[in-house]
Each structure stands twice: as structure tokens, then as C-alpha cells.
Q: What sequence folds into this?
């Protein structure tokens, strides 16, 4: 209706405005891409000695280094899958309660869920150690589960942090489902459980998938709490506990810069694929 | 071979394990129930005290009565046991009829058996099964020899007096001295594996030593790596519930901290860190001495003084030569870890860095090393500590002895660490070696 010439005048301004904003966006995206590619470039560059050896060839050509990466990757994948599945089991009911019911102390509960996220990771690991070693219920639990400095400890440390993210993501997904659908199902004779399982969950399906993938990616990168609580025991020790980020740290500390960068590149690749998947599935959460 | 399944360690498939687990489950449930009633979480989980028969003792003092305070002394495999006997005699004279003392000789099979039951492998003085006491908020553990391990004879007798008064009913329940959680009674949970805490920078030689020892003895050696400070925190929190055997920090400072808390029975230098100057391959800036680092146009890297041992030592070294201010004018990189200095030389962002010889050796293909005159240098020792809270003291000592033996040191030597100051990784050719400057920081 108001296709007036003045509006066209605005168009020009719009374009300039857009161009300026886009330039900043692309500059930043380019910066991130350059930093990531720099790692790859550094690994592919021949070493200064003139031997023609590159970081890649040092890592891939060395049987031990290759086996370490493979074994560590496997441990990381298995633990993070178990952890993210466990987090989902806790998060779906928890998030449903937070999303649908009015509770006393709702703010307090909400804040408690945020605590693992705001805690410095190093302190989170130490706090877990203190709980499982210095308190009566903690030591009893540890006697039962044997989690301190073991592989189970990896899952406990990851779970402590990741569940908080998972609950946030799942709540975001459930908030998007209009409760009226459930009410309609119930008015048609559907029980509360059936309405939840057959109506709400399918409606939130993509959001839940996205939440799970995000939690998993986050779990894969968990470093300090895992190192402190499960202990950094690298491959090839029996029942080693060093997951990918811990292995990257240990290799850097013993002078294997190439190994630690190679592990980082692998993690970046996994994270990139995961996050693209996350976005394709319609995830709208944030990787805090 | 890589295991695909996450099977968790230490699980013994025998009935004893199942029974222990069932007992643990019951205890967990009852404890959680108790917790529901009393919000406090305390030190009240009781473990049955392990009784050691007097027949295992090599000497006794006083009479065994129900009201007598029991002293159990373990005396070392070597060293001077005389002071222990003197003290026990003194203790029985000080409280006649109220003290019963027993001495266990760890060099005899019976004494070792007693030590194993109480999870004690080195000199230790227990008062009614308490190895540690809280003195006005500070924890004191009566292990190792007094003086060297951060406790005194006066403290031990004060703890004894307190215990005698408490048993006689004349003690003040809010006394300044309080016994710590029972130490003995953990032997049922003893395992046949060792738990080692090692600085991350010493990973390569420790992993090699671990693999060699495992192959030779079949004993499982779990070795945890992290920064020395982080390891100390882990030790402080878990040493009682998760008995640990050896501590190898990258720096004496952390060993002293651990010793002050009574964690360390014995320590020995396993290798040395010798400062050298790392330069780019071919030494294009022609750096020969520390003085050359002060030359205009030389880009210098150093470790951060407060964070890294190499940083602290570099600053001391420059101060000793009166070069600190002038070299700091050339400083372009403050690295939080020693390997980062090597990486910076490798990628060419600095011309020279003061670094440890062992770390410089990692970058040998991409850099050159300039040695310093040992007489003018500050050499740092790397100590290996035998911890006092081992669940398997004999095994722990065996591994300790292995690492400090010639075979163990040879592993460190092969990984290019300076084990013998007469034969450093990078010998200084200009002058003969001189140990007078070794600092025992």
C-alpha cells in the first residue's frame, strides 16, 4: 500500500546498513575460519629441518600416536554417548516438571541447575572429589560404584556438568509444545502418561534430538572435571581414562605439540559435523 | 589391542567382591537414611578396628588392660630405631599403668604382617589406632621420622597425654588436640595395584618406567598425570579413601608442601632440571652466554615467574648475574609452561629462551642449545616421594626402589633427562662440572 518513492529512498540506506553489518559478520567468521584452518595448515607444513616431514605424517606415520588417537577417540565416543543418554533420561522428566508445573522454590531449583554451568570447571572437578571422598554419603556411594579415578568417574564428571545443559535444552523444546494439545488428548479419554508419551514427546521430537546432540557435543569436550575426578591416565595404560581433551593436554605438556593439535583438529571436525546436524534438526538452543 | 567395552577396573569376580559390594550397598542405604534424619555429614562411618596380635610385636612395655591407651610403633626397615624404643619407655613411665606400648619390627615377617594389616609400611606411631591428630586446626600425622616430616616429639607426647586424659575421664572434650579419623582398618580393601601421581611433563619417562615394571612384575601400576599443584590437591582430598603410593611433582616446592602435610615418608631426587638457552637452528643471532640475551634486537621468551618452575628459576638466574632488568627489556613472550617456550622457538616467534635441558631436548630437531657454566647455573632437583598412605606399602616401596635404582634412572636417562650431574644431557664443554651451585629448593 505504501509503495511510495520515499520508501525506495530508504532502500538505499538499508543496503548500506546491511553491507556494513555483513562486513563485520564476514570478518569475524573469516577470523574463526582462519584460526581453525591455521591448525590444519601448521600440521600439513613440512618441518623446518628440511626432512619433508609434516605434523600429519608424524602423527599418522607413527603407529603409537595413531593407536593413541584411535583408542582415545573410542573412549570419548563411548563415554559421551552413555553420559548424554543418561542426561536425557534425567532431563526429560525434570524439564517437563519445570516447564508445566508451578513449584515452590522454583527460582531456587532453577538456580541450582545453573550452578554446574557457572562453576569454574577445575573447581567442579575438585568439588566432586571432595563429595565422593570426604563426606559419608559420598564415600558410601563410591564404595558402591567405584567412581574415583576410574572410567565410571569420567561418566560421573561429564554427567554432573552436561545434565544442566541438557535440562535447559530439553525445557526449551518442551516449552514450544502448546499444553493445550495434551489437554485435548486428555479430554478425549487419554491418560496423563499416554498424553505425555504419545502427544507431547512426538511434538517435541526434533527439539529433543537437537538437545541431545548439543549435550553430546558439550560432553565430548569436557576437560577439567574429567581430568581431576577420573584422573588423567593415558593410553596404553590398562583402563586408561584420558579422553580426547585430556589427551590433548597431556601431549602438549610432554612436548608433542603436533599430537595435541591433531587431536584438537579431530575434535573440531566432530563438533562441526555435530553442530551442522543440530541446526538441520532445528535446534535453537545455545552452546553456552 | 584396544578394548571396545567400558569394563571398569579392579572388579574381582569372586564371592568376596560380591559380598563386599552387598555390604557397601547396605551401608550406603543406611547412611542415606541416617542422612535424611541428621543433616550433618560427618566422620562417623565406623569401620571395625583391625586388631593386631601382640605375638607379632618384637617388644612390649606396660600391661594390657581395658583402660590402657594402646601405642603401636612400627620401626623402619633401615635407619635408627633407637629413638622409638626410648620414647615408648618414656611414655610408659610418664603414665604408669595407663599405657600399653608395642613395637613392631618391619624387618621381620611378623612385623611386616602386622604392618600390612594396618596398612603401614614405614615408621609410624599409632595412639589407639589414631595416626593423626588435629592441633588447633592443623593436621599432624605421626609418620616417618620426627622433625623431617613436619611433626615433633612434643606434639606426639601432647597427643598421648590427651588420649590418656580422655580414657581416664578427665579429658576436656573440647580440647585443642583431637584425634583424626581412624587410619587403620583399611587393609580389607587392599589391592594389588599401585596408584602414582606424576607431573605431566614427566609423562614419557614415567610411562616407560611403568611399562617396564608392569612387564617385570605383573603388578598393575595406575599412573595419573596432571600439573603438580593439581596433583597435590587430588592427593589432599583422596589420600585416605583412595590410598596412593608415589608422588612425582616437577618441582621440590610441591614435595615440601606434601611433606608438610605428612604425606611423604621418604623422597629421593630422580633427575635434575638444568637450565640452558634454546636458540633457533644454526644460532643465527650468535647467542653464547646469558649476557647475549640482553643485546638489543634479541627476542627473548621466559616462563611466567609465579606459575612455572622454569620461570622462577630463570629470574633467579638472571638476578644472580645482574641481568634481570636488561633481559626483561627484550622479553616478548611470557609462557605459562616450559613446552610452550620450545614451541615458540620452533615456530620462530622468539630468538632465545631459558628452558630446562630435558624440555629443550624435545625440540632438538628444530632448535639449538647453548649450555651455561654449571658453576654459574641454578640446577633444580626433581624428587620422587614415597607416600605414607599406601594400601600396599611393600609393593609401593618396591616400585619406589625400582625407579630410583640404576635400571629406573637409565629409563630417565634414555628419555634424555639429566640423571647424573657429571653427565648432563648437554655437557658444558668450557669448564668441568661443579656441583656447588645445586640448589635444593
A:
Amino acid at each position: 500500500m505504501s509503495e511510495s518513492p520515499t520508501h525506495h529512498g530508504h532502500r538505499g540506506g538499508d543496503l548500506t546498513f546491511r553491507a556494513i553489518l555483513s562486513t563485520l559478520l564476514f570478518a569475524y567468521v573469516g577470523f574463526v575460519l582462519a584460526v581453525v584452518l591455521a591448525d590444519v595448515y601448521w600440521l600439513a607444513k613440512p618441518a623446518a629441518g628440511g626432512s619433508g616431514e609434516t605434523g600429519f605424517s608424524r602423527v599418522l606415520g607413527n603407529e603409537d600416536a595413531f593407536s593413541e588417537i584411535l583408542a582415545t577417540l573410542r573412549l570419548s565416543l563411548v563415554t559421551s554417548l552413555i553420559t548424554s543418554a543418561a542426561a536425557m533420561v534425567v532431563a526429560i522428566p525434570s524439564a517437563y516438571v519445570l516447564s508445566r508445573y508451578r513449584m515452590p522454590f522454583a527460582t531456587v531449583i532453577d538456580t541450582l541447575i545453573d550452578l554446574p554451568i557457572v562453576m569454574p570447571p577445575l573447581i567442579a572437578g575438585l568439588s566432586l572429589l571432595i563429595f565422593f571422598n570426604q563426606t559419608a554419603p559420598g564415600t558410601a556411594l563410591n564404595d558402591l560404584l567405584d567412581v574415583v579415578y576410574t572410567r565410571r568417574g569420567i561418566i560421573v564428571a561429564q554427567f554432573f556438568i552436561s545434565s544442566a545443559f541438557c535440562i535447559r535444552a530439553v525445557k526449551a523444546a518442551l516449552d514450544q509444545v502448546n499444553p493445550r494439545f495434551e489437554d485435548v488428548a486428555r479430554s478425549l479419554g487419554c491418560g496423563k502418561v499416554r498424553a505425555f508419551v504419545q502427544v507431547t514427546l512426538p511434538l517435541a521430537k526434533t527439539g529433543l534430538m537437537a538437545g541431545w546432540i548439543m549435550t553430546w557435543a558439550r560432553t565430548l569436550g569436557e576437560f577439567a572435571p574429567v581430568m581431576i575426578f577420573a584422573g588423567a591416565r593415558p593410553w596404553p595404560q590398562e583402563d586408561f581414562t584420558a579422553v580426547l581433551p585430556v589427551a590433548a593436554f597431556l601431549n602438549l605438556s610432554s612436548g608433542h605439540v603436533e599430537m595435541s593439535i591433531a587431536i584438537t583438529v579431530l575434535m573440531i571436525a566432530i563438533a562441526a559435523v555435530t553442530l551442522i546436524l543440530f541446526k538441520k534438526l532445528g535446534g535453537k538452543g545455545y552452546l553456552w | 589391542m584396544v578394548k571396545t567395552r567400558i569394563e571398569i577396573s579392579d572388579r574381582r569376580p569372586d564371592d568376596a567382591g560380591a559380598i563386599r559390594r552387598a555390604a557397601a550397598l547396605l551401608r550406603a542405604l543406611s547412611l542415606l537414611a541416617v542422612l535424611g534424619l541428621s543433616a550433618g555429614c560427618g566422620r562417623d562411618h565406623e569401620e571395625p578396628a583391625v586388631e593386631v596380635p601382640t605375638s607379632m610385636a618384637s617388644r612390649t612395655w606396660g600391661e594390657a588392660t581395658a583402660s590402657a591407651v594402646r601405642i603401636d610403633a612400627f620401626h623402619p626397615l633401615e635407619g635408627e630405631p633407637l629413638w622409638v624404643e626410648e620414647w615408648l619407655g618414656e611414655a610408659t613411665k610418664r603414665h604408669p599403668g595407663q599405657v600399653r606400648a608395642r613395637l613392631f619390627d618391619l624387618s621381620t615377617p611378623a612385623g611386616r604382617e602386622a604392618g600390612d594389616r594396618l596398612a603401614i609400611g614405614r615408621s609410624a606411631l599409632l595412639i589407639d589406632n589414631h595416626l593423626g591428630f588435629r592441633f588447633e586446626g592443623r593436621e599432624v600425622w605421626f609418620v616417618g621420622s620426627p622433625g623431617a616430616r613436619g611433626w615433633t616429639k612434643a606434639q606426639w607426647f601432647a597427643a598421648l597425654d590427651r588420649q590418656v586424659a580422655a580414657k581416664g575421664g578427665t579429658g576436656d572434650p573440647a580440647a585443642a588436640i583431637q584425634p583424626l579419623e581412624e587410619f587403620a582398618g583399611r587393609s580389607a580393601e587392599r589391592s594389588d595395584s599401585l596408584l602414582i601421581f606424576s607431573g605431566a611433563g614427566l609423562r614419557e619417562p614415567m610411562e616407560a618406567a611403568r611399562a617396564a615394571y608392569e612387564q617385570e612384575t605383573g603388578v598393575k601400576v595406575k599412573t595419573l598425570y596432571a600439573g603438580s599443584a593439581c596433583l597435590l590437591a587430588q592427593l589432599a582430598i583422596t589420600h585416605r579413601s583412595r590410598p596412593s603410593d608415589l608422588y612425582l611433582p616437577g618441582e621440590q616446592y610441591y614435595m615440601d608442601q606434601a611433606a608438610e602435610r605428612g604425606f611423604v615418608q621418604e623422597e629421593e631426587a630422580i633427575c635434575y632440571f638444568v637450565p640452558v638457552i634454546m636458540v633457533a637452528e644454526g644460532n643465527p643471532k650468535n647467542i653464547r652466554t646469558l649476557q647475549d640475551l640482553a643485546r638489543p634486537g634479541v627476542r627473548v621468551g621466559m616462563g611466567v615467574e609465579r606459575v612455572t618452575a622454569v620461570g622462577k628459576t630463570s629470574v633467579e638466574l638472571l638476578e644472580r648475574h645482574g641481568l634481570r632488568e636488561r633481559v626483561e627489556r627484550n622479553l616478548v613472550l611470557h609462557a605459562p609452561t616450559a613446552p610452550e617456550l620450545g614451541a615458540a622457538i620452533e615456530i620462530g616467534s622468539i630468538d632465545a629462551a631459558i628452558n630446562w635441558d630435558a624440555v629443550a631436548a624435545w625440540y632438538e630437531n628444530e632448535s639449538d642449545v647453548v649450555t651455561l657454566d654449571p658453576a654459574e647455573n641454578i640446577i633444580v632437583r626433581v624428587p620422587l616421594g614415597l607416600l605414607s598412605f599406601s594400601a600396599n606399602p611393600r609393593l609401593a616401596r618396591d616400585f619406589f626402589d625400582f625407579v630410583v635404582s640404576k635400571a629406573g634412572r637409565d629409563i630417565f636417562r634414555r628419555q634424555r633427562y639429566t640423571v647424573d650431574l657429571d653427565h648432563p644431557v648437554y655437557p658444558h664443554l668450557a669448564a668441568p662440572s661443579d656441583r656447588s651451585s645445586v640448589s635444593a629448593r
